[in-house]
Write a structure and sequence with these properties.
The complex is a heterodimer.
Chain A lengths: L1 E3 H4 L9 H10 L3 E8 L2 E7 L10 H12 L20 E3 L4 E11 L8 H9 L7 H13 L3 E5 L7 E5 L5 E2 L8 E2 L5 E4 L4 E4 L3 E2 L11 E9 L1 H11 L4 H7 L7 H15 L2 E3 L4 E3 L8 E5 H8 L5 H10 L3 E4 L4 E5 L11 H12 L19 H15 L3 E2 L5 E2 L2 H6 L23 E2 L4 H13 L5 E12 L15 E12 L16 H15 L4 E3 L11 E11 L2 E9 L1 H6 L8 E6 H4 L17 E9 L5 H10 L5 E11 L10 E9 L11 H19 L5 E2 L1
Parallel strand pairs in A: 4-7, 19-22
Antiparallel strand pairs in A: 1-3, 2-3, 5-13, 5-14, 5-15, 6-13, 7-10, 8-9, 10-11, 11-12, 16-18, 17-18, 20-21, 22-23, 23-27, 24-25, 25-26, 26-27, 28-30, 28-31, 29-30
Helix pairs in contact in A: 4-5, 5-8, 6-7, 12-15, 18-19
Chain B lengths: L5 H14 L3 H12 L4 H7 L8 H38 L18 H14 L4 E3 L4 E2 L1 H4 L18 E3 L3 E3 L4 H9 L6 E10 L11 E11 L4 H16 L4 E8 L2 E10 L16 E10 L1 H6 L8 E7 L1 H9 L12 H9 L3
Helix pairs in contact in B: 1-2, 1-4, 2-4, 5-10
The chains are: A alpha+beta, B alpha+beta.
């Protein structure tokens, strides 16, 4: 809301310095978003509190400041309206109208504009003059926070009826090109032929005032906030009036607002009342009283207050306060605060604002022992350290994506990732589906970076995917039956080299073997068992990864993740040109556990004895299988079997070796008695190991080289 | 029998030694002049041919010559090694202007770093971290937090609705509602953090997904002054001794509600572009837990009170990085992440 300082000064006395006024505004909850100084006039843009409908006018803003500064409050002149039999019959058919008044005004001369002061008030709020009648209603609303509306009385047919709309009924709201059907049950103001206004929201075209209007029926009312909110949502129109009514208007101001509009029009000399003001509605001031004990107030605020002080401070806010001898306080809530003051805590807040938040002495409660990081937090930090060490950047992707993900991944209806949890009201199509996989965003990441000519990408994320629960019927009532299962996981994608191209290029391209190394390091750092092996066919990403470049991650006998290159067809759909990324995901639950540190063993005191073996392997035989057999069939004092070289061969036939693998066998150099191993002892062990490999793998085409 | 000419031996030795410029040449000099077949050793063997009177005199001359050779060889070794080092150093000159070759490290996201810092501060007060679902029932997102259906406060949080009438949480306060629903015995000190969602138009500073960090402290006897004490502690721990102020705010789940502003570091409250002319930057929203919430979860507001606070970690991270367009932090642009971590380097 925009307000002018010159206008605000009409309502109360304020400090001379505009920035001093601004400081007080901030202190009482009238947050100043901007200070204006245009053409020598100071003004403010305020962000009003959502629960304070009474702040939506100069009177409310001034009252808040006057209360804090203990200054007088001035109200504009108001015509005292005589309530009686209305010249226009009013019919009330709903209890969603608390009070409704109608005052007939008739043109009696030239229709001059409002006074310059009133027009200045409109300008201070950024509003333009559109004619004296509408201007008067706008001015009164800005001054007093009471929305009013003027109908051209000569367009009305029959009594004014306050009711809910019928099915199929149409209305023509102002500023809309044509009549629209409004939902049944919308609170409306109608005559015998048409809807005159969506109550509390907006008037309608057929009954609007024009420069030819000579008789107006001035409406001033208070509507049920929920009814106005529903109506506003139903027709998709929000106005100053609806914003005011939704936050709860002051029923005691119905006649005040009408009286102010009347006064403004009477002052132009062109309008005069005709008959009494009709008033319907059963609202009576409930006289809400909030009771609390002085010691409770002191305890809640942590501030020493005396009863007289409480009464005086609340009195400035419009509360009538009675303090009993035993320390009980009874505060009567003013009518403009009936909607937001309900509990003693609400009154304590008024006291705190009156004291000034800056005048409290902050104090810490008794401080307990601090807490320590959980197992999950520690494991996550360690995981991050490993990945950061390998050049990965942590990212946060959206929790959703568009429907094009299904096409890009190439999912048919039978695919386990085809079904998604869907958003039902997303403003953007890119937010249609809650993500049920992270491969899509990983590949988009690589593709978008490739388009920017950034081929080297390393990114990881802790996130969760959302998986619809099969067979679950929508059930709004049961909070224990969510429509999906959330699966927390960590994913990463790497593409290109581990550092930008350099003057001495020893950088390493990310591939499946490199990624296996990352998994191994995670396993070591976290102290958990993460084995990379054959990919699980049941994993949802199985078919989306390269058939020869995908593997599974197993922990404790359970598949916990998958890694691999995208399937060439998938890469093509994502328009990856040069990039051959590798992707990995692991269940967060598998990573974020307490690991075990490896048992300590002293390094050998003597140099190891090293022997090398080379085998030719045909396609389909994995080097790791042979390493495992060598290790299993070596003597106890075989320390390690390492794969130290791979040489590509060009086989003449499919069953001939296509790779030469060199294994390094590292034996402990001495026995328990520190006696060095003899060459014969070691050679004999190697011969035995080769024999086993030949026996097991020879029929598959493996040859020692 | 002529006496050995130690002076000639020394002269020959010194001539060779002067020519020796590397350790190998020095070893050769040592072999030639002090080795088994050297004139020096030969002369020792010839002592037996001398008279008893000559023998001790000559032996002394030979020994002195040998000692002199050893000393000069040792000195030469030092000199030659030093020279060899000099040569090697000269030979191994490198162009130090060439860029380093170690693979660069990556980085955790600034948001995670901010969250960690918040947690580190709050752990000192005994807080622990709790987690909860992102797809929520409206009860936990609204009703349980004193935001009934058709309440204007729902406008503050344009919501993503999903299948079955559930929603994507619009704040992480939902996790606290789930904690309180379990009715643990006070004191309760928990923080929740993570993603929240708002169904709003996306621009440079607004994203449909953002991060929050919220906490509650429920205990008997907590007051508004305690709230200010806790917030001051948190604000100062995170931002140093910059000026802060408390201002009234409205949150449906707290009463009284408080906003905590930090004096703009660029203009010190004078108003500038960085703070959009406000002079202050809001860093925290907080308040005393609303009695309606306490009652709804079975706590007696006369017996127990609570502090609640929330930090906009997205904004905090943007401030930390110095990035004006906070939406960039949620992009998967490798260049952005590299620059957030290492600037232009």
């Amino acid at each position: 809301m925009k307000v002018g300082l010159d206008v605000l000064r009409r309502f109360t006395d304020l400090p001379e310095e505009p920035h001093e006024v601004r400081r007080w505004m901030d202190q009482v909850g009238l947050e100043v978003k901007r200070v204006h100084h245009e053409d020598g006039v100071w003004g403010y843009t305020l962000e009003l509190l959502a629960n304070r409908g009474d702040h939506h006018c100069y009177d409310g803003i001034a009252r808040e400041l006057a209360s804090r500064l203990d200054r007088p409050l001035r109200r504009p002149d108001v015509t005292e309206l005589e309530v009686g039999t209305s010249p226009w019959p009013l019919r009330l058919e709903t209890d969603a109208v608390l009070r409704y008044s109608a005052t007939l005004l008739v043109a009696s001369g030239a229709l001059d504009p409002l006074s310059p002061e009133s027009l200045r008030l409109l300008a201070s709020a950024g509003m333009q003059s559109v004619g004296p009648v509408v201007d008067a209603t706008n001015v009164a609303n800005l001054e007093l926070g009471q929305p009013t509306h003027a109908f051209d009385a000569d367009t009305l047919r029959g009594p004014i009826t306050l009711r809910h709309s019928a099915p199929g009924e149409r209305a023509w709201p102002l500023f809309t090109p044509e009549p629209v059907e409004i939902p049944a049950g919308t609170l409306v103001v109608a005559d015998d032929e048409k809807i005159l206004a969506i109550a509390g929201v907006i008037g309608c075209e057929e009954s609007k005032t024009t420069e030819r209007t000579r008789r107006i029926l001035l409406e001033s009312a208070t509507f049920d906030p929920v009814a106005v909110r529903k109506a506003s949502r139903a027709i998709g129109i929000t106005t100053d009036s609806s914003a005011r009514f939704e936050r709860g208007a002051d029923p005691a101001r119905v006649l005040l607002g009408a009286g102010r509009v009347t006064r403004l029009l009477e002052e132009t000399g062109g309008w005069q009342r005709s008959g009494a003001t009709g008033l319907v509605g059963e609202w009576h001031n409930p006289g809400r009283v909030i009771s609390f004990r002085m010691d409770a107030a002191r305890s809640a605020l942590g501030f020493e207050l005396e009863p007289a002080d409480v009464a005086e401070r609340l009195g400035r806010q419009g509360f009538e306060t009675r303090v009993e001898a035993d320390g009980h306080v009874h505060a009567s809530v003013p009518t403009w605060r009936l909607w937001d003051v309900e509990f003693p805590a609400d009154v304590y807040e008024e006291l705190a604002k009156s004291i000034g938040y800056e005048n409290f002495t902050p104090s810490l409660p008794p401080i307990p022992m601090g807490s320590v990081a959980s197992v999950e937090e520690v494991a996550r930090q360690r995981t991050d350290e490993v990945l950061v060490g390998y050049g990965f950047y942590e990212v946060f992707t959206d929790g959703f994506y568009g429907r094009n993900a299904i096409d890009l991944l190439g999912l048919d209806e039978a695919h386990p990732l085809f079904r998604h949890v869907e958003t039902t009201n997303a403003l953007d199509r890119a937010y249609s589906l809650l993500k049920n996989n992270c491969l899509h965003q990983a590949l988009l990441t690589v593709a978008s970076n490739e388009r920017r000519r950034v081929p080297d990408v390393r990114m990881f994320e802790w996130t969760r995917t959302f998986h619809p629960v099969e067979g679950l019927l929508p059930d709004r009532a049961d909070p224990r039956r969510p429509p999906c299962v959330e699966r927390p996981l960590m994913w990463l994608v790497a593409s290109g080299r581990d550092r930008p191209r350099a003057w001495h290029d020893t950088s390493r391209r990310a591939d499946l073997a490199w990624l296996r190394g990352v998994v191994h390091e995670l396993s070591v750092e976290l102290g958990i068992d993460l084995e990379v092996g054959e990919a699980d066919r049941e994993h949802p990403l199985f078919g989306l990864l390269h058939p020869h470049r995908r593997q599974g991650i197993v922990s404790g006998g359970r598949t916990v993740g998958i890694l691999g290159e995208p399937h060439p067809a998938v890469s093509r759909r994502y328009k990856l040109k040069q990039a051959t990324p590798v992707y990995l995901e692991i269940d967060a639950d598998a990573l974020l556990v307490e690991g075990t540190r490896p048992e300590w063993s002293d390094p050998p005191s003597v140099q190891p004895v090293v022997r090398s073996l080379a085998f030719g392997l045909p396609r389909g035989v994995e080097a790791g299988d042979i390493a495992a057999v060598l290790h299993a069939n070596g003597p106890d004092w075989l320390d390690q079997v390492l794969i130290v070289d791979l040489f590509r061969l060009e086989p003449a036939a499919p069953d001939e070796p296509d790779r030469a693998i060199t294994y390094e066998l590292r034996f402990e150099g001495a026995g328990a008695d520190d006696e060095p191993r003899t060459a014969d002892e070691i050679n004999a062990a190697v011969v035995d190991m080769v024999a086993v490999v030949s026996e097991q793998f020879g029929p598959m085409g493996v040859r020692q080289r | 029998m002529p006496r050995p000419d130690t002076a000639a031996m020394l002269a020959a030795f010194r001539a060779d030694l002067d020519r020796a410029q590397d350790p190998a040449a020095l070893d050769e000099v040592r072999r030639l002049h002090t080795g088994k077949k050297s004139p020096l050793k030969e002369s020792l063997r010839s002592l037996r041919d001398l008279t008893p009177d000559e023998r001790p005199v000559v032996a002394q001359q030979i020994n002195e010559a040998g000692a002199a050779m050893e000393q000069e060889l040792a000195d030469a070794a030092v000199r030659i090694e030093a020279r060899a080092d000099e040569l090697r150093i000269e030979r191994e000159w490198e162009d130090g202007s060439l860029p380093g070759l170690a693979p660069p490290r990556g980085s955790r996201h600034p948001l995670s770093q901010v969250e960690d810092r918040c947690t580190e501060v709050l752990r000192q007060l005994g807080f622990t971290v709790v987690d909860g679902p992102e797809v929520e029932h409206p009860f936990y997102n609204f009703d349980a937090l004193n935001i009934p259906e058709h309440h204007p406060a729902r406008d503050m949080q344009d919501t993503f609705w999903v299948d079955g009438g559930w929603l994507l949480r619009s704040h992480t306060t939902t996790v606290q509602a789930r904690v309180l629903e379990q009715r643990p015995t006070p004191p309760i000190r928990v923080v929740s953090k993570g993603r929240a969602y708002r169904n709003e138009a996306v621009d440079a500073t607004h994203t449909a997904m953002f991060h929050q960090y919220e906490g509650i402290w429920l205990e008997r006897g907590l007051s508004f002054a305690h709230l200010q004490g806790v917030l001051s502690f948190v604000a100062r721990s995170l931002y140093g001794d910059g000026r802060i102020r408390f201002k009234p705010k409205f949150y449906p789940y707290t009463e009284p509600s408080v906003g905590v502003d930090l004096a703009c570091r660029k203009c010190d409250t004078a108003g500038c572009d960085a703070c959009h002319g406000a002079g202050w930057v809001t860093i925290l929203g907080a308040g005393m837990i609303h009695p309606k919430l306490l009652l709804a979860f079975g706590y007696d507001p006369d017996e127990v009170s609570g502090i609640a606070f929330g930090l906009g970690t997205t904004r905090m991270a943007a401030q930390r990085v110095g990035i004006a367009r906070s939406a960039s932090m949620y992009e998967q642009d490798q260049r952005v992440h590299s620059r957030m971590h290492r600037g232009g380097r």
